[in-house]
Design brief:
312 residues; MetI-like fold; 13 helices; mainly alpha
């Protein structure tokens, strides 16, 4: 006999189990979000918010002189930072997952540990270690290049506008490649072995099995990884701050939206050093808008078949 869920005088019982999480979310996520949106409509001196200016902060960010130039530069650099992670980090993560899911590979637990260890390191520690390795005078990277006869490639990797952002993006990809690897590996291991046995009976090659069986079945999981990569990289700050600082050297080539927001809204732009919280809140609001639209678009691309990633 079907029983109706127990209720209290006003609410079902399950509401009370959700209430603590809902309170925490409201206090630390929802309210700050709306306060930030409200703050973006004001301006003032330092941390004092005094004057309502409507959408003038957004106009300054998008169209006005040096402010707009720095914003659009950081916006473009953030896309480069994200694309390097999508191409390098996630492609390597998928490759490593395919190798680790192979029955012929031995010492899988050792390889999994090696791949995942960088993700357990503090980002500040990772940034400092790679700054040492990339030192133009005595860094191990340039010493190695000289040792193998590639002296033409020796350069100050973090001191050139053409290489600094790419190098930092690759360092970040190296640190976090273990995350997509484990997600893809879990997805591949969840595929029934009967599917692969049937493919072997039909004479399917490894390449054909990947394209016709594995890739379609893990496609929704690839969407999850893409969304996580997108949100994490558009909120990035720490690795760039650790390796290059908040001012985006050299020549703002490593400036991303996270460091630009920090300079404008918290630390204050050089050389004045007076923060503009209204302008900083406008940067944060634009980041939120980009993330919201981007996640919706990615969901439509990776779940275009109408599934939710669970096959339902």
């Amino acid at each position: 006999m079907h029983q109706r869920p127990r209720t209290t005088a006003l609410f079902p019982v399950w509401i009370w189990y959700m209430l603590p999480g809902l309170i925490v979310y409201t206090l630390f996520m929802a309210i700050p979000l709306f306060k930030s949106l409200q703050l973006s409509l004001y301006t003032g001196s330092g941390f004092r918010i005094e004057t309502f200016v409507g959408f003038d902060n957004y106009r300054r960010l998008l169209t006005q002189g040096e402010v707009a130039r720095r914003f659009w530069g950081a916006f473009g650099n953030t896309w480069i930072f994200f694309l390097v992670h999508m191409i390098v980090q996630n492609s390597l993560g998928l490759l490593f997952a395919l190798l680790l899911s192979s029955e012929a590979l031995k010492w899988k637990s050792v390889y999994r540990t090696i791949i995942f260890i960088p993700a357990t390191l503090a980002i500040v520690v990772t940034g400092f270690l790679w700054k040492l390795l990339l030192n133009p005078q005595w860094g191990a990277v340039n010493i190695f290049l000289k040792g193998v006869g590639l002296e033409s490639l020796v350069r100050p990797w973090l001191g050139l506008e053409g290489t600094s952002l790419i190098v930092i993006s690759l360092v970040s990809s190296w640190q976090w490649v273990g995350i997509p690897t484990m997600i893809f590996l879990s997805a591949l291991q969840s595929i029934s072995s009967d599917v692969f046995e049937a493919a072997d009976i039909d004479g399917s090659s490894a390449w054909s099995t990947f394209w016709r069986i594995k890739l379609p079945l893990i496609w929704p999981i690839m969407g999850v990884v893409a969304i996580l990569t997108f949100t994490n990289n558009f909120n990035a700050f720490d690795v760039v701050f650790a390796m290059a600082g908040a001012n985006g050297p050299p020549g703002y080539s490593t400036d991303i939206l996270g460091t630009y927001f920090y300079r404008v809204g918290i630390a204050g732009e050089h050389p004045v050093g007076i923060p503009d919280m209204g302008l900083g809140a406008s940067v944060a609001s634009i980041i939120f808008g980009v993330l919201f639209v981007g996640v919706l678009l990615m969901r439509s691309v990776f779940q275009s078949d109408g599934t939710d990633g669970t096959g339902k």
